[in-house]
Amino acid sequence: MSSGRGSAGSAVAAGLDAIAAADPQFDAQHFIAGARAAYEMIVNAYAQGDRRMLKDLLSREVYDGFEAAIEAREKRGETVETRFVSLDKADIAAVEMRGRTAQVTVRFVSQLISATRNKEGNVVDGNAEKVSEVTDVWTFARDVSARDPNWKLVATEAGQ
Q1: Comparing C-alpha atoms, which of 118, 154, 127, 159 is closest to residue 35?
Q2: Between 60-75 and 28-48, two packed helices, what is the crossing angle to 10 degrees?
Q3: pLDDT band at residue 160 under the 50/70/90 scheme
Q4: What pLDDT score was predicted for residue 16?
Q5: Is 130 helix (H, G, I), strand (E, B) or coil?
Q6: Which residues contact 118 (CB under 8 A, 6 or more apart)?
Q7: Helices assigned H by DSSP within 49-157
C-alpha cells in the first residue's frame, strides 16, 4: 500500500512528463530556479508598488488583485518594507496540463522581514525587526505552444 505522499509524488512526476512531452525544452530544475527568482521579484515589486514589473510576471486576474491592493495602500499613504532573509524551499506541489497550458504549483517557504508603515512612519502591520516564516502556494502557467518561454503567475494562496 502506498502512502499519500508517494502518490502525490508520482502525480507530479507524471505531470512533469506530460509538460516535457508537450514542450521538449521544459526542464524542472530550470523551472524551479526561474520560479524562485520570480517569487523574490514579485514579492519585492509588490512591496515597492512596481506595477510595470508585476504586469510582466502576472496573469491579468492576479495583476488586478495586486494592483487594487497597491492602490488601496497608496490611498492610505502606507508603504511596505520587505527584506528577504532566505528562500528556504521551493517545491513543486502539483502539475497539470490543461489543453496546451501547463500549470505548475510551487510551495515556497521563505524567511522575510516585512512591515507596513502609515504616512507618519509608524508600523501598522508586520514587524520591521522580526523575521517571519512565510509559506506561499503559487501557480504558474504557460501556453506550451506559444513562442514566449515565460511563465506567468496565475494564482496565489497562503500556505500552511
Answers
A1: 154
A2: 30
A3: low
A4: 95
A5: coil
A6: 76, 77, 78, 124
A7: 51-57, 60-75
**Cβ neighbours for 120, distance < 8 A, ≥ 6 positions apart:** none
Residue with cell 518594507: 81
User: Which residue's entry shows cell 530544475?
Assistant: 29
Query: Which uninterrupted H or E stretch holds 142?
Result: strand 132-143
Distance, CA of 52 to CA of 134 (rounded, Å): 25
Question: C-alpha angle 30/81/112, rounded to 5°?
Answer: 50
Closest Cα partner for 105 from 70, 136, 79?
A: 136
What type of residue sits at position 150?
A: N
User: In a 3-state reduction of DSSP, which class is residue 63?
Assistant: helix
Nearest Cα to 113, choosing from 133, 136, 131, 86? 131
Please give the domain boundaries of the chain with CATH numbers for all domains: 4-158 (3.10.450.240)
- Give 58's contacts (C-beta < 8 A, 6+ positions apart): 42, 66, 152, 153
pLDDT above 70 covers a percentage of the chain that reads 94
Instruction: Answer whether residue 1 shows pLDDT above 70.
Output: no
CA dist., res. 100 & res. 145, Å (int): 6
Residue 64 and residue 72: Cα distance in Å, rounded?
12
The dihedral region occupied by 40, where left means phi > 0, alpha psi between -120 and 50, and beta the remainder, is alpha
